[in-house]
């Protein structure tokens, strides 16, 4: 009988960025712990969460989610926080159009401060959060075109509160 092969473990650093109050912490907590609270405190600087995914029988993936503060006053440290990231998730609040307007700022910030080892830009996914809210409006064509025009991998409507598209 052959000896079992050792499980391969991978660690991937993923940035979760966007304006303050868009639900970054809520999305992360729902994804990593399966819980939602309407009462999170403002993130100061950066916070971390870990999600382990058993990819197959011999591969374990550890996703290290970096919850980056969205408040301007914490923006000076982002270069340090972004280092070694392999992907980014930009979150905006569907009920606050100004948070969508700032997506390009966050995208440019990421692309100016971190690259993959092959010098390609890190892949970015866009989350249109709080889709459960009554005044949340989504124009799928606009978001799809925006992502295509700005080399964003894809976008998803999400609700941390109602666990919509938080897998």
From TrEMBL:
<dbReference type="GO" id="GO:0090385">
    <property type="term" value="P:phagosome-lysosome fusion"/>
</dbReference>
<dbReference type="GO" id="GO:0005770">
    <property type="term" value="C:late endosome"/>
</dbReference>
<dbReference type="InterPro" id="IPR027417">
    <property type="entry name" value="P-loop_NTPase"/>
</dbReference>
<dbReference type="InterPro" id="IPR005225">
    <property type="entry name" value="Small_GTP-bd"/>
</dbReference>
<dbReference type="GO" id="GO:0005525">
    <property type="term" value="F:GTP binding"/>
</dbReference>
<dbReference type="GO" id="GO:0008333">
    <property type="term" value="P:endosome to lysosome transport"/>
</dbReference>
<dbReference type="GO" id="GO:0003924">
    <property type="term" value="F:GTPase activity"/>
</dbReference>
<protein>
    <recommendedName>
        <fullName>Ras-related protein Rab</fullName>
    </recommendedName>
</protein>
<keyword id="KW-0547">Nucleotide-binding</keyword>
<dbReference type="GO" id="GO:0005764">
    <property type="term" value="C:lysosome"/>
</dbReference>
<dbReference type="Pfam" id="PF00071">
    <property type="entry name" value="Ras"/>
</dbReference>
<keyword id="KW-0472">Membrane</keyword>
<comment type="similarity">
    <text>Belongs to the small GTPase superfamily. Rab family.</text>
</comment>
<keyword id="KW-0636">Prenylation</keyword>
<keyword id="KW-0449">Lipoprotein</keyword>
<keyword id="KW-0342">GTP-binding</keyword>
<dbReference type="GO" id="GO:0016020">
    <property type="term" value="C:membrane"/>
</dbReference>
<dbReference type="InterPro" id="IPR030697">
    <property type="entry name" value="Rab29/Rab38/Rab32"/>
</dbReference>
<dbReference type="GO" id="GO:0045335">
    <property type="term" value="C:phagocytic vesicle"/>
</dbReference>
<comment type="function">
    <text>The small GTPases Rab are key regulators in vesicle trafficking.</text>
</comment>
<dbReference type="GO" id="GO:0005802">
    <property type="term" value="C:trans-Golgi network"/>
</dbReference>
<dbReference type="InterPro" id="IPR001806">
    <property type="entry name" value="Small_GTPase"/>
</dbReference>
């Amino acid at each position: 009988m052959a000896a079992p092969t050792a499980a391969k473990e991978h660690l991937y650093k993923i940035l979760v960025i966007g304006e303050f109050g868009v639900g970054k912490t809520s999305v992360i907590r729902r994804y990593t712990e399966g819980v939602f609270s309407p009462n999170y405190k403002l993130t100061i600087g950066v916070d971390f969460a870990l999600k382990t995914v058993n990819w197959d029988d011999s591969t374990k993936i550890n996703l290290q989610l970096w919850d980056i503060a969205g408040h301007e006053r914490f923006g000076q440290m982002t270069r340090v926080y972004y280092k070694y990231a392999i992907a980014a998730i930009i979150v905006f609040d569907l009920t606050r159009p100004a948070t969508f307007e700032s997506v390009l700022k966050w995208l440019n910030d990421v692309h100016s401060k971190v690259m993959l080892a092959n010098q390609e830009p890190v892949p970015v996914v866009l989350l249109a959060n709080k889709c459960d809210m009554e005044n949340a409006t989504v124009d799928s064509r606009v978001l799809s075109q925006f992502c295509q025009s700005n080399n964003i991998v894809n976008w998803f409507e999400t609700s941390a509160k109602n666990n919509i598209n938080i897998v």
